[in-house]
Amino acid sequence: MKTIDLSRELVVARGAIAPPFFTWLAMVVYAIVFYTLTASAPMLGEITWRDASRVGTGWWMTAFGSSTQIGGVTVSLMPTLITLIALYASYVIFRRRGISSWAEVAAATIAQALVVALIGAVVRPDGVWWAAIAGAGAAGFVSSLAAAREELMNLPYLDRAVPRLRLIAGVLAGLALAVGLLALVMGWSRLIQIHGFYLAGAVGSVGLVLLQLMYLPTALMWALAWLLGPGFAVGVGTNYSVLGVESALLPAIPVLGALPSVSAGYPWLLGVVAVIFFGLSMYATKREESTLGGGLLSAAVASVAIAFAVSIGSAMSAGALGSERLATVGPYPALMFAAVLMLVGLPSVLGTLAMHPATRAYLSGKRGDHRTESTASETPESLSDQGLGEEAPTTPPGAVSTGETDEVPFVDTEEEREQPSIG
Fold this sequence. Notes:
The chain is mainly alpha-helical. The chain folds into 2 domains: 1-153, no CATH class; 155-372, no CATH class. The protein is built from 16 helices and 6 strands.
């Protein structure tokens, strides 16, 4: 009787348990220490250290897409730094485990979902925590599939577009970081002023800074949304975009002091972004050795993939920081998808088309054909107008043209003159 060997799946499942478990443990310990040392801070509500573990667990589950209740306030904005740490740790573990089958991917997916389900069932935090089960399963699926991409996915078009994909992603990340740093510098005084309202002491201040660092990738995605045009909201009726700023009363969160003031915006920056990616595509095309069709396909695939990734990141960077007015926070995924296609995808395709040798050869050939047609179009009449219509005579002076007589012309040479006459 043939037995089923699940040893590989069990090895993968054991590795999948570690990332969600240790991120949960870290956030619970942080919550206990933070709430114990800063229990008097006004923004922290009436939560005591006895409830800190449940609060920390609920907050951790928002990293996988759920919502929780903290001091009676609904919070669903994901601490994306925790999410990315869990994803990257899972990816590294799965690469070391050498995932090579769909059964192992399924084992990773189920294991991470079960970790969240068991912790939620034991701790039972406030809010819709069970949504995190699906989110953890999705994280396990994505990270394990990425680790096994060579074995399980055969996508040659995507593989050829990977160099462009990395280049575009790096430039977008750099632009978002530059905008974020500029906003931090310009709003530093307001940020420090809001931070001082908490009166949390040295240890509490460190905890407050760490709390905001959990949302660092979220802040960078907001900066990118500002730069690309769709913008982001921090409450109903607000929008922060390069096209203009509409603001309102904001919650007393120090990092929000870096938000721009109400203004008409800087629309010309959209053109700068488009020019950057046009030039970037020309650079990538110059480095590639592919046909024009292959280059255009790589540019299109990379642009769509980046647009999809940015829209997913935008969805992860949106949520709620409270009820009513603060129920809408973050960028708009659909608008971000369209903005990336317009400001990144279209310039990338045009830059490839402009820089490819086939395009330049075609244009050079068209210019040569145009010059030939211009020369051929000059009629005899037009030439005669310029004095070039009649052919110059080729017969030397004194010679008789054969066209004027049928007789052979007589050549009077010196040798014939010296011959004696017969008579």
